[in-house]
Amino acid sequence: MTDHRIPLAGVIGHPVAHSRSPKLHGHWLKTYGLAGHYIPMDVAPADLETVLHTLPKAGFVGANVTVPHKEAALRLADHVSDRASVIGAANTLVFREDGSIHADNTDGYGFMANLRAGAPDWNPADGPAVVFGAGGAARAVLQALAEAGVPEILLTNRTRTRADHLKEEFGQRITVVDWVQAGNVIENAELVVNTTSLGMQGQPELRVPLDGLQPGAVVTDLVYAPLQTRLLQQAEEAGCTTVDGLGMLLHQAVPGFERWFGVRPEVDAETRAAALA
Ligand code: ATR
C-alpha cells in the first residue's frame, strides 16, 4: 500500500531556536510546492535515543542533527556513510521504512559546494591550503579538502595538540604549524579557511596578516554571523577572492532535502535571503 502521509523532517539540537534550517527548508518546500513540514526540535542529550526511535513511527522521514548531538547521533545510527565516519559526526539522518537510521555528514560537501560556487577558478591541485582551527568544523573541511585532492594542508590551532591529533587521523598531507607562526606560511597559500569561532558576533577577531597572500588566492570563513568578517574584509582589500560561510550552511542542507522531499533544491540569492530572514 502506498504511504500518502505528508513527510516530516526537522532539526534536532539543544538549544535549537537559533537554527536557520527551518527557514531554509520551509523556503524550499514552498518554492517547489511540496507537501511536507520541517520543524525545530529541542531535545536534551538524555532524550536523544528515545526521540530518534520515536520519530520514524510519527511519520518523520529524517532529520538534521546539530550541536550537541552530532557525535551521539552517529553512535546511535544503524548505518553510517563513509564521510560521516571520517568526520566522526552526523548532521543528516534518514529514517528507512524498516525503522533503521542512516547517518550521513554533508558538512564537507557543503563546504566544497560553497567554495566551488563562490570561487569557480579555484583549483584544488594548485597549491596548499591553510586551515585555522581543529574542532568539529575543521574535521569536515579536512575531509572535503583531502577528497578534493589538495596537495598540502597547513593546519594551525591555538591548542596545538588538537591539530596534532587531526594530523594523525587525516594523514600525510597535513603539516601542523604553530598558531603564532601561521602568518609566516600564509603567503604560500592558494586557499585560507577559518574554521574557528573567531570573528563571530561577540567573539574576538581572527588576526592574521594577509598582505603576503597571492592576489589570486581564495579566503573563506565558516563564520556567517556577521557575513562579512574582518578576515574577509582584509582579504578583499588584499585583492583575494572571498567566500562567506552562509553558503556552506545552505549547500549542506541540499542532500537531506532531496532525500526527504524528493527534489534537489537550488541554492541561489533567494535561498540566501530566506535563510537570513
Ligand atoms: P566547532 O565544532 O564549531 O569547530 P569547537 O570544536 O569548539 O567547535 O572548535 C572551536 C575552534 O575554534 C577550535 O579550533 C578552537 O581552538 P582551541 O582548540 O584552541 O580551543 C578555536 N577557538 C575558539 N576560540 C578561540 C580563541 N579565542 N582563540 C583561538 N582559537 C579559538
Please provide a written account of the structure.
With 277 residues, the protein is an alpha/beta fold. The protein has twelve helices and twelve strands. It has helices spanning 21-31, 48-54, 70-76, 82-87, 107-118, 136-148, 160-170, 182-185, 230-237, 246-252, 254-261, 269-276, and strands spanning 8-13, 37-42, 62-65, 79-80, 92-95, 101-104, 129-132, 153-157, 174-178, 191-194, 218-221, 241-243. The strands form two sheets. Strands 2-1-3-5-6-4 form a six-stranded mixed sheet, with helices on both faces. Helix 5 (107-118) crosses helix 10. The structure holds 2'-monophosphoadenosine-5'-diphosphate (ATR). 2'-monophosphoadenosine-5'-diphosphate is lined by residues 133-138, 157-159, 162, 195-198, 204. Belongs to the shikimate dehydrogenase family. Shikimate binds at residues 19-21, 66, 91, 107, 224, 252. Residues 245-269 form the SDH C-terminal domain.
